[in-house]
Structure prediction request, 423 residues.
Amino acid sequence: MHKTTRLSLKNGVGLTCVTTNQPKTSCLSAMLVLPLSDASRSSSALLPYVLRSSCRDYPGQQAVAAQLDRLYGALLQPVVRKRGEAQLIGFAADVIDERFALSDAGALFKGTAQLLCALLLHPQMPPRDVLAREIEQRCAAVAALSDDKRAWAVRRMYQYMCADEAYSAVELGDPETLRAITPEQLMEHYGRVMQTAPMELFYCGSLPPEAVAEQLQAALCERPEIEQPVRPTFFAPRRPVRDTLAAVTEEEKVAQGKLTIGLRTGITAFDADYPAMVLFNACFGGSTASRLFRTVREQMSLCYYASTQTDKLKGVMAVASGIENESEPRARAEILRQLELMQQGVTAEETEAARRSVTASLQAMYDAPLSLENFYQTQAAAGLTETLDELIERIRRVTPDEVTAAARKAVPDTIYFLKGAGA
Prediction:
């Protein structure tokens, strides 16, 4: 059994608790929610990695590591995410649940909360050599984005499709900007962030929400109230911003071409027809029972893989496929043809298969605290209060006609082809 509770600890600090005995580990995270369009996103992306290394109460990496060892080998990772036009930065901690600890009830969570909040609230100015090392590691992470060609092709497509929108920005920052950051500039930016950015906390574990809130309030007692938090503005055009379908081809030394098609749906988690869009995504390419998997991949053998994915806060969809270069015209035409066929009508059988797949995936989150954390922190960043159970219930009520209506709102915008150049 599980129970979801939403609390406000103080102005600018929200808490979501999922109380459950299901997983063997508990999760605690703290995210600062920033506009992705902020000119300081490189500094923001660097912050959690620098803050993780030292603070007033645990000076130096060895002191931080020693405290994590005392917490039964807890893991505490810096996090940087892009969700629509929001940049989320902070920490996520994974620790064994209180039920399996030998310490006093709640002591393990208390220690984790104190460490996480100490890193956020009481940083030390990083030495220049420490900052330089973290900067180079962040630059390496940005450069490594292109190593995963499947994900890279989707990212590149969105950079062209949303070229004039904040969504095209790389949430990890830009190497040139990162390398220009000084310790003084970073700590000055930290001060601005803490004065303006809302903080969202998430806990999943066996402790009651009242106990979680009490411990977090104590750990955050020195964080000042934020009278007017600066929240991101989300932008989801209902139609393509251009009159013609854009097509971009780039070449790299890859053995397999990557054909990616970007669509505007205009449907986000803010909209009543969002559950229908979730099922349309599953019907189109989001499951092994989907049209693209069964037809384009299995029956026609045009793709090594063919799938779809959406951003719930942006109202966009990406069709990702791996193909032989010479198959690009046929694969493109067939993917678009399958979209047109779905817009003519999604069957009851397809809808039910998609419903089973989606609900099973969502329910499986209760076995994975970090997946729950990702879901609820995205909800909180956007100011959405719908629980996972409520979303599942809405998905169970979607009809085939509603899925068809959602499909008709998907309009192709940009075709991106990463062409293999003889690897």
User: Anything to note?
Assistant: Residues 2-219 form a domain with the Cytochrome Bc1 Complex; Chain A, domain 1 fold (CATH 3.30.830.10). The mean pLDDT is 94. DSSP finds 15 helices and eleven strands in the chain.
